[in-house]
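Example complex used in Figure S2.
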Amino acid sequence: MRPALCPVAEVHELCSGVFSLWLEAPDIAHRVRPGQFLNVKVSSGPDPLLRRPISVCDVERNRVRLVFRVVGRGTALLSHVRTGDELDVLGPLGRPAPELRHKRILLCGGGIGAAPLLFLARRMKRATHLQVVIGARTKAELLLLKEFRALGVPVAVTTDDGSAGRKGMVTELAEGQVKGQSAPFCHPERAERVEGSLRRDSSTPLRSVSLRDRRNERNDTRRQPSAVFACGPRPMLADLVKRLDPIPIWGFVEERMGCGTGICYCCALPKKGGGHVRFCEEGPVVRLNEVVL
Amino acid sequence: MNPQVIIGRTTFANPVLAASGTFEFGLKFPTVANRLGGVVTKAITLQPRVGNPPPRIYEFPGGILNSVGLENPGLEAFCADVVPRTRKLKCRVVVNIAGFSVAEYGELAARLDSEPVDALELNVSCPNVREGGALFGQQPRVVEAITALVRKRTTKTVIVKLTANFVDPAETAKAAEAGGADGVTLVNTLFGLALDANGRPFLGGRTGGVSGPALKPFALFCVDRVAVAVKMPVIGCGGVMNGEDALDFLSAGARMVQVGTASLVNPEAALDVWTGLKRYVQKNRLSNWDKVVGRARRVGR
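Predicted assembly (594 residues):
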């Protein structure tokens, strides 16, 4: 597998410190599947030496979208690329997210964690009933809401400060969804508040769910999601497992990697029964119930 | 020219190897492995090992620290599951073995003697395993004893991978030679410590091993020093990122080079190193490797 030089087609800042980058990468665009990532060289020289693994956020014809948060020197360098620059990219890497047979699946994203769930949602929406919950610290940091909306899947949001959606943690909302305790997707008033300035899309069936449907949904346990895909900070993932176990939760794990290709054994996540999961190889989407977070 | 290199009973198609621990077993990228002189496997121990807790890698300008802790499936699983697949590789397969007692090296060597692998590389130098106290590779007497025992238990080519942590590798190389080694690899990673913002050791294994471009000048120094101290071939290792780096190691006296950390950045790095070397050979119409090997001593200074 040889790294490819991919021209940057578009780059912009989604919110403070979070960047969206479209790469012209026909080969990757055709091969990549949800859950996989690209390993990006952020400098041409030996400093930083290692590539930076970034999950694929979306694919559009010959283009691949990466959304990343600036967390260190590597991602800071990456944020300085301009349209027309070429990025040295290795991928797609990692095992694609499993194709679950569950009828209803919840996608739960915290902060930058919403990014890889978008591609997953795009590919999964036809095969299964999806619900999406997204959380962030503030309204400004809620990512990709418009894109999720455009998919026509129900989306609910939370913010730490209550500036949009429900105030609180996204894991609380996820728990409510799975356990059938709340249905914030379809509450008209809340929906208005949640959306705020976001224009309602007529193709979105989200709003069309009536209160009666909501009640039915609440009473019918079969209608609650029976599996979860989650992405976000470690504490969020750990909290989710605590709340929802033993419901299967598949999580996108973020951790320092060496090679990204499974040859160096540097990205290890302890398994509950002992041993490690190499999440560049067996992940990055792993069954969170089976690992120590 | 004929690019082959012979070490002990093993003929390598070219002087570039993938270093232990940085290319797993060569099976992830067989098309790369097949075009190299050989692949050195991850270290194999008698018993399976789960390795160190994460984080296992730390990056600094010019290199990395790792503390994988010899995670591997153990000798029996290796022989049963891995060897049947590595035997299909078209390159030489060198099995890196690590013991926690002198006797374990003997056991590992004896068991692997009947397997279809080409050579053994004795890891007497892994610095981040806290079991067993001092490193075997720090005592010339112990290096000689391990090498002699392995020599007795196997007919395969025996290479000793030396450490340069608080020991003169020229002394341990001489000991390996006295024990019957066919060659030495140097250097393994150097001891390193990384701290987080709170002053706490960053790596799960507490300390790690330094590798990458930052290690190269020191590795080159060691090769230059050891190549004149022993008669057996030296395999250079430490920060080889491209053909020029490899050429430097040959010039310093190495017969072969190993590519390690570079494979983490680009899985085809070892192949690129070989391509770079080949280009140099063609451009300068080299008739054999002797023209460059050890020339740093011949041209003076």
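Chain B has ten helices and 14 strands. The domain at 5-51+69-190+211-298 of chain B is CATH 3.20.20.70 (TIM Barrel).
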